Amino acid sequence: MNAPASETRKFEAEVAQVLHLVTHSLYSHKEIFLRELVSNASDACDKLRFEALAHPELTAGDSELHIDVSWDPDARTVTVRDNGIGMTRDEVVANIGTIASSGTRRFLEAMGSEQKADARLIGQFGVGFYSAFVVADKVTVLTRRAGAAATDGVKWESDGKGEYLLESAELAERGTTIVLHLKADEDEFLKGWELRSLVRKYSDHVAFPIRLPVEKDGKPSDEWETINAASALWTKPKSEISDEDYIGFYKSLGHDFSDPLAWTHNRVEGSQSFTTLLYIPAQPPFDLMMGGRDERKGLKLYIKRVFIMDAAEELLPNYLRFVRGVVDADDLPLNVSREILQQNRQLERIKAACVKRVLDLIDKLARDEPEKFATFWKAFGNTLKEGIAEDHANRERIAKLLRFASTKGDGAKQVVSLDDYIGRMAVGQDTIWYITADSHAAALGSPQLEAFKAKDIEVLLMSDRIDEWMLGSLTEYEGKKIRNVAKGELPLDEADKQKQEEATKAAEPLLKKLKELLGDRVGDVKVSARLTDSPSCLALADFEMAPHLARLLREAGHEMPESKPTLEVNPAHALVKRVESETDPAKAGDLANLLLEQAEIAAGAQLPDPAAFVQRMNRVLLG
Ligand code: ADP
Ligand code: MG
What we know:
This protein is of the alpha+beta class. It folds into four domains: 6-226, 2-Layer Sandwich (Heat Shock Protein 90), CATH 3.30.565; 233-368, 2-Layer Sandwich (Ribosomal Protein S5, domain 2); 403-484, Rossmann fold; 494-622, Heat shock protein 90, C-terminal domain (Four Helix Bundle (Hemerythrin (Met), subunit A), Up-down Bundle). The strands form four sheets. Strands 1-6-5-4-7-3-2-8-9 form a nine-stranded mixed beta sheet.
């Protein structure tokens, strides 16, 4: 109320930083400023249409929402105008004088001081408005909030260098006008056909009419022409939509310069009718794994073609957070709020349908388009794995889509499905075996695999951090148990069992000696059924966490219970035989501890006293 009529303010420090980054790194894609401004204008129209549902007087007298793009070759300006929601003075300050979106903050954090943001990243974070300064050395915003008096208009102006001017303005019409005063060498944007082709390229599927003046003698005339399709693409029958249309629409959703990997478009008719148009991107957004879980965007909810809100959190489970697109429902109340949405039963059904469509789509890629599926798996496989724990109802479906490296696969490539594994199982095998480790090489080289290699049993090799956690929720598939080769008892068949018992009996004195030498460093010492070539390995109880993971969690500051490992030894190995025959207690102690320590290293565990290990090893080497 008491704001001075005219004032100069400083940008928030972060805005200045974003401005600097954007103007310096977006240069090779400078024309996207137009897409960003049109997309803001379209958002403003969406917001007004929504508010007008409850307050029809807001659009009275001017109810055809539209966006006008024009140019003035003499003044060297490009202008984007909308008759959407507009902004109050406070909103102008909050929305374009400070950094409102936490996404932009994360962008800054991610960039750090390196200042080498590339255009792709900027696109994903949507630092939209400031892209105007890539081509303009001065930007003027004239805006009036819908419902506000003509005298309550606001003028904002800045050269993008640290300060902006804020003034009251009398504006005859509601909405926002953005005037770009072009830099000296940006004349290409002063041509009608250039602007027209850019709008067609980037904004054809904006749902409001975008109008341009008809060009006459190189100048804009008074005659306006709508140049975009301005239709809600998803409402058209599939047969009338080309791949280019689908791809163009995806890009108009923003935040990705690349083509989508795949999409699925469906209409459900019945007691509750709705349309879904869902896309899988070809690459993960920058913050998918970092901050992506807190604030999710990308799925727009419409009700009868009226944009309601971004409802990614309400309509998609976390593990499908990479999906983007549109849901348009016919039967939801138009005045829904987020709170209502969260408890709405119809919405639960729509959500289930979205999940089903996306899983169907991934399934189809897996069956028919292996290359696309490989791209998908690389980008989002680890995200999808979260669904095993999160989505009980779809666990089998998701499990079917998982791909792993394997001792019978293609090196480190994750290409083996659980069905592939089952298809190769020997008669009588009732368990799917896997191992988890820090890296593919560590998994492949693990001593625990030796017995499996000897018996030609396939083992899935898992080295993504999420695997161990996921497998906690995946203990069976198609009636087969899924087990870690390093855990629990390992009698592979009856003959093994018997051999194992005999070997244990024969090794009783050895086991006793090792237990005495190792004292409370171990919980137990056993004869191993896992080893053929190596002298020793660790065995875990069924409930125990893999040592490499326990180490990672400890390093990340989590308190982990100290559990004493079970050491398994191979009595046939020469080193174990040496411990057995060594009569000098000090030498026997060194050897016993080295047996344990090499097993710990192979399992990716943390050595409690690395210096002691090195000294021991040197004594033995010089021995
Ligand atoms: P984003 O669109 O991702 O929120 P932008 O930098 O493009 O980020 O825009 C910042 C904010 O400025 C928008 O969220 C909106 O509140 C406001 N804004 C920008 N352009 C307009 C406009 N034409 N009409 C109304 N508000 C606008
Ligand atoms: Mg924007």
